[in-house]
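Many groups now describe folds with learned vocabularies. In that spirit, our science desk offers one protein's residues alongside their backbone shape tokens.
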Amino acid sequence: MDICIIGGGLTGLAAALPLTETAGVTIFESRPLLGGCLASYKRDDYWIEHYYHHCFAGDERLFSLLRDLGLSDRLEWLSGSTGYYVDGTIHPLTSPIEILRYPHLSLADKVRLGLLTLRAKRLDLAALDAVPASEYIRKNLGESVYASFFEPLLRSKFGDRRDEVSAAWLISRIAIRSDRGVEGERLGYMRGGWHELVDGMAEEAQKKGAVIETGTPVTSIRRTGDAWEVNGRRFDTVLATIPPQEIGRLSGMEGFAEIPYQGAACMTIGLDRDVTNGIYWLNMKDTAPYGAVVTHTNFAPRERYGGEEVVYLASYFGDRPAPNLKEMMLSDFCRRFSVPKTAVHWSELAVERFAGPVYTTGFADLIPAYEEHGLYLAGMFSRPNYPERSMEGSIAAGQEVAARIRGAVQ
């Protein structure tokens, strides 16, 4: 049996590993590198992800996969500090004292916000799927908390669609990020970079006989009798990890869900200085061409990166990124944080049109089954990634769809 997997990201690789035990597997990846949004740049003496990534304490499928690949010893737990950039000032918001000192929320607002954080893991997310996040926050925490704290975050991430985003997504995000201590959020990272996971999965799949073709975009999918042709090549089964509507476009078939997606443009910068006062994740309340400044080397040790500070500027877009976005982001960053251009050692901009679903109200009803129209579908749009996408969810989707395929052919 020959299986084609469209997409060499986490879901595609996670599915390939068990499928190679009983079938021939070919992976088509459109880009030169595997990993999807988990792909990495190779600098002179270190690797750094195109988009910032970390894992969480409950990511059991990820931990099991790392054990199987012999990579468990590379996983480490680090503290991620947070802050808010408001009116040109950096406000740290990691410790209880820092939160109490934050001037843009009243004490009552802070109490309500703290109580929501404590309750988030116990709330019924299914009941919140149809409730807009903006409506939920206004009703339960008040207008001032929404306007001063949540609205800028929603605006920077979802732009004009911020009022469509469901409370299920927001509460899930709060819950998953509530593993906090006085030094910050407890987050997992791979010593040496997540490319080790991607490379480990690819090497194991190839060891078991998988064929991986990078730089090979899929341009056509066609049903031929009891088989499929992908780019004119015959396969018994096709697993697509790209958005369902793209499968409909490539195949000419109707009936695939139109999953709302957004794009991401993430600039990575190598600097000679720290500009966020030791803070890992700095959200931007002030209007800027990016919504957060994520200083990776305030999370992972700087000495691993040739003594450079490594900073991400995170930006999201709808149909397409703004023209000259790289110049806009870098110019704004240097001006806002008083960084001379000579302090910037290098910069790269990664752009992904389908970076992730927009979890609008009613999203639960859009989630496709693992098998539709004779094809298998899995990815960031699958149920394990609802209502918040993660590496854990993408691995789970790949493993679950692989079990479905194996069950169908046995």
Q: What stands out?
A: The mean pLDDT is 96.
